[in-house]
Write a structure and sequence with these properties.
about 300 residues; alpha+beta; 9 helices; elongated
Length: about 300
């Protein structure tokens, strides 16, 4: 680790400060590890993917990305193509920063870069959706696009109800989804719903208790779904979930290594993958246990 390091910066992240943070990080790695660092300012999402996809062949043992969750997802998709995957590090510069929250990293870029003076590594699971990869969450229904605009402060203060508040009008405009859900261990489930969330970690949209039992390396994907398609159904689900009731009369939860989701109403429905538009149903989701080794800075 840190013999030859590729630092990939999304120039629009961190209010345009990503390249400056990249320079600070390179200086830190050179001083503490005598690392050979190359900084790449990406020009597009495809650029991020390509840089990470070819990293191993170009001799990089470590790739560190600076950007939001979308940048990290592109990087992970690229890194997963390497036969010998480089160690993965990142400086979170987005809005939700779910993976950083799940790993308990500092969200202050300057502080996190300083903490690179002392690091450990940890293996994390990666999710596969059809022929692509994700690192945080796949969502389906009325809320995914709306909740991305919900403030982190509201999510921490109000929890799941913040999603309900932001998405009420969307619920009124959205038809119910008729879905078939097939976990690998159980029989198929038929569900009428307006919201399905499948996560790898406890943090979804910066709300760190959405899936409180999920861990970055538990070898499972975790599904939460509202039973029903009205706003009242969602509110009831939120209340039950907050109470941690085991009855689950208004919501569904399950954990599995593989889950297939299909539409049975004939409608074309697309999913949201780590905050970006994803494939149209049906989708097959699978967890790849301990697929990436990530850097967890500790500081002095």
């Amino acid at each position: 680790m840190f013999s030859k390091v590729l630092i990939v910066c999304n120039p629009s992240a961190g209010k345009g400060e990503s390249p400056r943070y990249g320079e600070l990080l390179a200086k830190q790695l050179k001083e503490h590890y005598r690392a050979v660092c190359h900084i790449k300012i990406s020009q597009s999402g495809e650029d991020i993917y390509r840089e990470c996809m070819t990293a191993s062949n170009r001799g990089y043992d470590t790739v560190i990305c600076l950007g939001g969750d979308g940048t990290l997802t592109l990087a992970a998709n690229g890194l997963m193509q390497n036969s010998e995957r480089p160690i993965f590090g990142f400086i979170p510069l987005g809005t939700a920063n779910d993976l950083a929250r799940a790993l308990k990293l500092s969200l202050n870029p300057n502080q996190l870069i300083e903490q690179y003076s002392n690091v450990r590594t940890q293996f994390i699971d990666v999710g596969r959706i059809n022929d692509e990869y994700f690192i945080n969450v796949v969502a389906l229904g009325a809320l995914p696009d709306t909740v991305m605009n919900t403030s982190s402060e509201d999510k921490e203060r109000m929890g799941f109800m913040a999603y309900v508040r932001e998405g009420v009008q969307t619920f009124f405009d959205q038809d119910a989804m008729e879905l078939r859900i097939r976990p690998i261990e159980d029989e198929e489930l038929l569900l009428t719903t307006n919201l399905v969330i499948v996560g790898l970690t406890n943090s979804v949209g910066s709300f760190q208790q959405m899936i409180p039992h999920a861990k970055v390396d538990d070898g499972l994907i975790h599904l939460i779904a509202v039973k029903g398609n009205t706003t009242l159904d969602t509110i009831r689900a939120a209340v039950d979930y907050k109470r941690d009731t085991t009855e689950q009369s208004h919501y569904l939860t399950l954990s599995s290594q593989k889950i297939t989701i299909e539409q049975v109403d004939g409608m074309d429905r697309s999913v949201n993958v780590d905050g970006n538009s994803g494939p149209v149903l049906p989708v097959e989701l699978e967890v790849l246990p301990s697929a990436l080794q990530v850097i967890v800075p500790q500081g002095e």
